Structure formats: structure tokens, C-alpha cells
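Dear support,

I submitted the protein below through the web form. The confirmation email said the job was done, but the results page showed an empty box. After a refresh the structure appeared. I'm attaching both so you can tell me whether what I see now is the final result or a partial one.
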Amino acid sequence: MTKLTNTILVTGGAGFIGSNFVLHWIQNTGTDIVNLDLLTYAGNPDNLATLKGNSRHQLVHGDICNAELVAALLREHRPRTIVHFAAESHVDRSIVSPDAFIRTNVQGTFTLLEQAKAYWSELDEARRRTFRFLHVSTDEVYGSLGTQDRAFSETTAYAPNSPYAASKAASDHLARAYFHTYGLPVITTNCSNNYGPFQFPEKLIPLMILNALEGKRLPVYGDGGNVRDWLFVTDHCSAISAVLDRGRIGETYNIGGNSERKNLEVVRAICDLVDEMRPEGALGPRRRLITFVTDRLGHDRRYAIDASKIGNELGWRPAETFEGGLRRTVAWYLENSSWVDGVRTGAYRDWIRRNYQERIPQ
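What the results page shows now:
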């Protein structure tokens, strides 16, 4: 009989959202964390530097597709909860190389569910009732909204439009199936666009912050009118904590920031903040650096989250405004140049050149 410990297993806990969750969890609970991460380009141990030497956190370099490793970690640490962040998540990369997304997001989630089911089935009835598998997903599985369409709810039909979104939709369906078929106590969360510290600078907000700081072009897809609902990453972490504490098994909870903004609005706001925090007379207003580039394939026009379910059932609401969160985010990137330098490798620079610079009309 397997006895649960006061430990949780987090996958992808060295990535952007995962590392913020690990730091938030260690700070706000007494629960230990075993952190399984493959440490690909966006998984960075430096995100967790403040936990060095902390006995409550153990970082394991490994692959969620490795069934033997996952099984061994479950047997050794006997976690009471699995929080599954590990995923390939950048839409542009999924268009260029979808195979990596199928492997990690579909095969990896399947492997994790299989091993979790085997582990959970060995627990006695009382411990099986307290075990949780939380699957972290995205609003992109719902497809694209028109300007006047109602926001995505938990009952919105899936309509993924990119290889990334399709791979996450597949993983969501697997998680749902393991609850309904086997009774595995799964909960799924679908979040809107996150932003904040430690986000790899291929994503919109950190890319624009760093390019604006350095006086480089700010590549904006299409006409800049694509709309996203922006969620400060710490709010996302608190929402996941609320779901783990009070969420109902088998349910889905949408997590949003109540902050719909056009991409062009976001970029302009970043320009103004960088101008304020790091004025550079020779550059002039950073807004002049905005450059419209060829749109990416299948670019969804609008995402919006209806987060009323998690608010009504669990009492969670975002604490940070978009204006306050963006100011905090810009300040963090300006103050952490060593972290930025550490992640901007030659491979990163090559990706930015191929994905953005080559789109600029000549």
C-alpha cells in the first residue's frame, strides 16, 4: 500500500509559468515539490535560483515521455498531487516544427496519465480520494472569436487552429477521458495569455520590452488588431492553488485576467513604459520602432475568457490590473539583464531572425 507524503510533483517547473508556480507554492505553503523538467530552451534552472539549497525543492532533469522515470519518481516521493505544466507552447514554433508539440503535449501527457493511474490505483480508498492530477491547458483550444462573440466558457466547443492548440486540445481530451473512464481525479484549467517575470523572450511582451530597450524594430503581426486576454502569471499561480484546494474533480476551470487588449495597444504601452524607465534621447519615442510584418499562418483574431465559474465556485479573481502587471513586468526585464543575457543564445537569435526579421516587407 502506498502512503502519500506532503509532496507534490510538478512537471515543467523550470519553465515560465511552472517556475513562477513553484516559487509561489514554496513561499505560500509548507508542501515540498519534486520538479520534473527536460530543461529544453525555455526551461531554465536560473528561474529557480532563489531555491538553491532549499530542501523543500528538488529539480529532476528528465522527460515526461520517459515512463520508467515518471513511475520511479512516483514510487520514491509518493506525491499527493501532480501539477502538469510541461508543454511546448509557442504557436510560431508549432507551425515550423509541429512534431515536437505532438511528442511533448500529447505523448508526454498520455505517459504521465498512464503512470499516474497506475500509482493512484495502488492507494487505499481514503488516499485515492485526496489525490489530484491537475492538467494545465490554454484558451487556444477553443479557437478564435469574432469581435462581438461571447467569451470562451468551459462549455465552448473546441476548435483549435494551430498545431500547438491542436496538441493541447488532444491532451485535454486525454485528461478528460482518464477521469471518465478510469476515475482518475483529474481537474483541467484553461488559461489566457500569461505575462510576467521569467518568460522566454520569444513571446510578445518580453520580446517587445527587450527590442524597445535596445532600439530594435518591434515586429507586429498583420495590422496589430489581434486581441488577447492578458493574465499576470502570479494571478495564474494563485488560481491554480485555489483549484487544487477547492476545485471539483472532473471539472474544467477557465482562468482569465479580465484584460482584453489588442496587440498593438500592448506594444504601444510597452514603448511608453520603456521610454519612462529608460529614456534614450537619441532614440526618440520607442513607438517609432513599431514595424508591421507579414502575419503568421492561421493567426486567431481574438481570445477572451469568461472566468465566472472559478469566481463563483472558488472565490478566485485576478488581483493585478493589466497596467500594474505590465509595469512590474517591464521593470523586471530592465532590472534582470544577466538573466536575459543567459537565455539569449545563438539559437535564440537565429530563431528571432527567421521568424520575425524575414517577414519584414522590403
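Response: this is the final, complete result; the empty box was a page-load delay. The mean pLDDT is 94.
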